[in-house]
What does this fold into?
Amino acid sequence: MSQCKHKNIVSYYVSFIDASDLWLVMPLLQSGSIVDIINMKYPTGIKNEVILASILKEVLKGLNYFHNEGRIHRDIKAGNVLMDNQANTYISDFGVSAH
It folds into this structure.
């Protein structure tokens, strides 16, 4: 995860263990996941194709990076796509990625 460097992939700074807990230090992405955004702002789903296309375009850029690096994510879903306050889109949850 620390080797992934792309504008659409969540950055990873450091990890450490405290007692039996694993902590990962990453940027705070204030808007949360796409699931959070849908639940709060679009309870009946996102109907605007421009919004959907914008999100998907950024996710596909991140996936293209993964594939060019010989990696696969294996768990792309709305809960693993995060946004910051400027609507920048990031792929997260590398627990199931493979190289």
Observations:
- DSSP finds two helices and five strands in the chain.
- The chain has one domain: 14-96.
- Strands lie at 14-18, 21-25, 32-33, 81-83, 89-91.
